[in-house]
Write a structure and sequence with these properties.
The complex is a heterotrimer.
Chain A: H1 3-6, E1 10-12, E2 18-28, E3 42-49, H2 66-76, E4 79-83, E5 87-89, E6 94-96, E7 104-105
Parallel strand pairs in A: 1-6
Antiparallel strand pairs in A: 1-2, 2-3, 3-4, 4-7, 5-6
Chain B: E1 5-7, H1 8-12, E2 16-19, E3 25-28, E4 31-35, E5 42-48, E6 51-54, E7 58-61, E8 65-67, H2 76-84
Parallel strand pairs in B: 2-8
Antiparallel strand pairs in B: 2-3, 4-5, 5-6, 7-8
Chain C: H1 2-6, H2 8-18, H3 21-34, H4 39-63, H5 67-110, H6 114-131, H7 134-145, H8 150-157, H9 162-169, H10 180-194, H11 197-209, H12 217-245, H13 256-302, H14 316-333, H15 339-364, H16 368-371, H17 378-404
Helix pairs in contact in C: 2-7, 2-11, 2-12, 2-13, 3-10, 3-12, 3-13, 4-10, 4-11, 4-12, 4-15, 5-6, 5-11, 5-13, 5-14, 5-15, 6-13, 6-14, 7-13, 8-12, 8-13, 10-17, 11-13, 13-14, 15-17
Classes of the chains: A alpha+beta, B alpha+beta, C mainly alpha.
Chain lengths: 112, 97, 409
């Protein structure tokens, strides 16, 4: 699957209720070693945002002028990180095992 | 084992592709191909225009993505315009380059 | 001398922003109508372009990426394309005007009608881009453009009432039958010209052409803090000359000949000769800057091989774009459109391009992945946000003001 097909998809919880949208895919370079002797990029989870927008501008991290970050976050609403184990990709949406209240805010998982 | 953390959209999409060997500019990363069925799910390729760059050719991901330009045809249009137009103008540079 | 040569990229970039053909006439026009009452806007513009050009220079020196790489990356393909179209049109319209400006300067010098000079001017610009090394090009046209300093000398020779000029400068408001609308329109025109997008495209791409690395951070800064203030100074000198010579007698300025007249009045034939060479160099330099920026922006958006650091045949699409743009310039100018008027229409596209160009620069200059220890400090960020706000206000107000004032009339 292409990244472009995944970004901007609706994210639903187990009961079929709306949570938000796919904003980014988190990768960790610790997958199987490739012939180039580099580790493959493993998909570890999704960044999910409450309001539809295609760009986070990198503001899921604690960087940049505070005012810009605040403006971006206000537009995006809540931002969550959903581990890949909790995700099922269906034909047109993405389903998450947990309910909205149980999701992990990205802030707690952010990397500086 | 903890590897480097990246975001596909933020760190890969729309980044400049550079030939690791000679620094030539080879296009932009238009999309990223993921194999979500695999165990574990991984990035399998980068897409630029009509071309697919297998993940094994990715050499370095920094402010640009360096790749080894093997078996790819990323210079197609640049070569086409070079042959048909630019080369016909005097002073376009040596053919040996 | 070597140190002076190291800052010519900044000087040439600033010439394209402050004293290209459109600005030469606008500066004089504003001086004739408002005196120095809009001088403060030039100062505000100089600070803004210094602020953002410094960020661009730093990003190039540390991360090696020019501005349109950042725009494509942070705004994505679609918004990036919108930015490309808007900023490319600004740059192309300016290029057309500059080719016309070079031809007008040649007409003033030779008496031969400017339309005959147009194809020759465009060909000469192409030839320089095709054959001359980047560092040579920036040195020659950067230094020659500085001949416009003659306007500052002329202003001094005219022996103005400095107290009165100062009084005008410190009272930024319209006078006489001028309204706040026309005042605002020209304020935006001057501010937009000072921060015109192709300056950062050219400056950052020039940094890549010069192969700036971390060790060149100081060079990058020197270019910014010498080049742009000099550009602003030239702009103010032209405004001052017009304020002294034309304002008291109520003469309106709309031709290049009127712009150059104060130098002739103050310094005679020699002054006129120097000013004509200066105008020729400045418009030619601005033509080079805008033509190259046309190639840089499209090349960087699509990721093609661009730049004069490789031979033309290795960057074929980059060179083809510039050839097409120059050919288009000839065609447009041969319809006998007034070159000076062409830049006025570019305001419409500049309004859209300005905030979209500067936002990604501010974002990336803050990104630790890119910049590490060299990312923006808090003062730069506060100023950066203030200017982003100013650009946004200017871009929203530009088109309504243009319509209300019928282009500043």
């Amino acid at each position: 699957m292409r990244l472009g097909e995944l970004l901007g998809r609706r994210v639903l919880d187990g009961a079929g209720d709306d949570i938000g949208w796919v904003a980014d895919v988190r990768l960790v370079q610790d997958g199987p070693v490739l012939p180039s002797m580099q580790a493959a990029f493993r998909v570890t989870g999704l960044i999910v945002i409450e309001h539809h927008a295609t760009h986070l501008f990198g503001y899921e991290r604690h960087v940049g002028p505070a005012l810009l970050r605040w403006l971006v976050h206000r537009r995006l609403g809540d931002v969550w990180y959903v581990p890949w184990e909790d995700v099922t990709v269906t034909a047109t949406t993405v389903e998450v095992v947990r309910g909205r209240a149980e999701l992990q805010p990205l802030e707690e998982n952010a990397r500086l | 084992m903890s590897g480097r953390v990246l975001h596909a959209q933020l760190h890969l999409r729309d980044r400049q592709l550079i030939d690791q060997r000679n620094g030539r500019l080879l296009g932009k990363v238009d999309d990223v191909e993921l194999d979500l069925e695999a165990d574990p799910p991984v990035v399998t390729a980068l897409i630029t225009g009509e071309q697919r760059i297998p993940a094994r050719l990715i050499a370095e991901i920094d402010t640009a993505v360096k790749i080894s330009n093997e078996g790819l045809d990323l210079d197609h249009w640049d070569d086409w315009f070079e042959r048909h137009i630019i080369d016909k103008i005097p002073g376009a540079g040596d053919k040996a380059d | 001398m070597k140190k002076l040569l190291a800052v010519t990229l900044g000087i040439l970039t600033a010439i394209g922003g402050f004293v290209d053909i459109g600005d030469l006439v606008t500066n004089a026009l504003v001086g004739a109508r408002f005196g120095m009452r809009l001088g403060l806007v030039v100062l505000v513009g100089v600070i803004g372009i210094c602020l953002y050009a410094e960020m661009c220079g730093r990003v190039v020196a540390v991360a090696g990426r020019p501005v349109f790489d950042l725009i494509r990356e942070r705004l994505g393909r679609r918004t990036g394309l919108l930015t490309l179209i808007a900023s490319f049109l600004v740059t192309l319209l300016t290029l057309i005007a500059e080719i016309g400006g070079v031809a007008l300067a040649l007409e003033l010098a030779s008496g031969v009608q400017y339309l005959l000079w147009v194809p020759l001017a465009a060909f000469a610009v192409w030839l320089v881009i095709w054959r001359v090394k980047f560092s040579r090009l920036e040195t020659v046209f950067g230094l020659m453009g500085l001949l416009l300093i003659v306007f500052a000398v002329a202003l001094w020779k005219l022996g103005p009432d400095w107290g009165q000029l100062m009084h005008q400068a410190t009272n930024p408001r319209p006078i006489g039958h001028e309204t706040w609308a026309t005042y605002g329109y020209y304020a935006i025109a001057l501010f937009g010209a000072a921060m015109t997008p192709y300056e950062v495209f050219f400056f950052s791409s020039g940094g890549v052409e010069e192969k700036w690395g971390r060790e060149d951070l100081i060079t990058a800064r020197a270019n910014v803090f010498v080049g742009f203030p000099l550009g602003g100074l030239l702009s103010l000198a032209i405004m001052g000359c017009a304020a002294v010579l034309y304002l008291p007698v109520g003469i309106q300025v709309d031709t290049l000949a009127q712009v150059t007249l104060p130098a002739a009045v103050a310094l005679g034939k020699l002054g006129l000769a120097i000013v004509l060479i200066g105008v020729f160099a400045a418009t030619f330099g601005a033509a080079l800057e805008t033509a190259l920026s046309c190639g840089y922006t499209i090349g960087q958006y699509y990721g093609w091989q661009w730049g004069k650091f490789v031979r033309p045949r290795q960057a074929s699409r980059f060179h083809l774009v510039m050839i097409i743009c120059l050919a288009l310039s000839i065609l447009v100018l041969l319809t006998a459109v007034d070159p000076v008027k062409v830049t006025e229409y570019s305001v419409v596209f500049a309004a859209m391009a300005l905030p979209l160009t500067y936002l990604p620069i501010l974002i990336v200059a803050n990104d630790p992945d890119y910049m590490g220890e060299n990312r923006n400090g808090p003062v730069t960020n506060v100023l950066g946000l203030v200017y982003l706000g100013l650009l946004l206000v200017a871009s929203i107000a530009a088109i309504p003001l243009m319509i209300i004032t019928k282009g500043g009339q």
